[in-house]
Target: 3-deoxy-D-manno-octulosonate 8-phosphate phosphatase KdsC
Amino acid sequence: MRPTDRPAPSPEVLARAARIRLACFDVDGTLTDGRLYIAADGTETKAFHVHDGLGLSLLRRAGITVAFVTARTSPAAEIRARDLGVEAHTGIRDKLACVEAMRTRLGLAADEVSFMGDDLTDLAVLAAAGLAAAPADAQPAVLAHVHWQSAHRGGEGAAREFCEMLLAARGGTDVDAAGTRQ
Model:
């Protein structure tokens, strides 16, 4: 998914990526395009990109814990996380405290945690992450504080590109037709 003219990640970013054992993702604007579809009865729908989903599954299969961390209470995000076999933390007002609790529970150092987010509510957790990432269309204040930026917009392959970079830093992303790493 990476454009051929995109420069390879820097050695520093690859070194950070190779240490990641917990990969956390904001939902709205990162795993989705940020638009909310709310019906008259109050139900909410979101569109998730299937390519991002496979990337998240490949991380999990590679032994990296994957989690959604979102401020919105979102049954759609919970269902998508369950489908992918990843953790879902929805309705989170303090994303940093949530990620720190996961990190502590897993016995990880701060430099073993990545976070991908797109807006001001993600700044604190991005600042604490060993590897901070953002989609191409993240807010300028976020882009100024991340180690790595996707060439893709949120909900349009940004998470997949990040997943592939994480996997490449660990030694490869080759998978067979069943989605199994080789």
Notes: The chain has seven helices and eight strands.
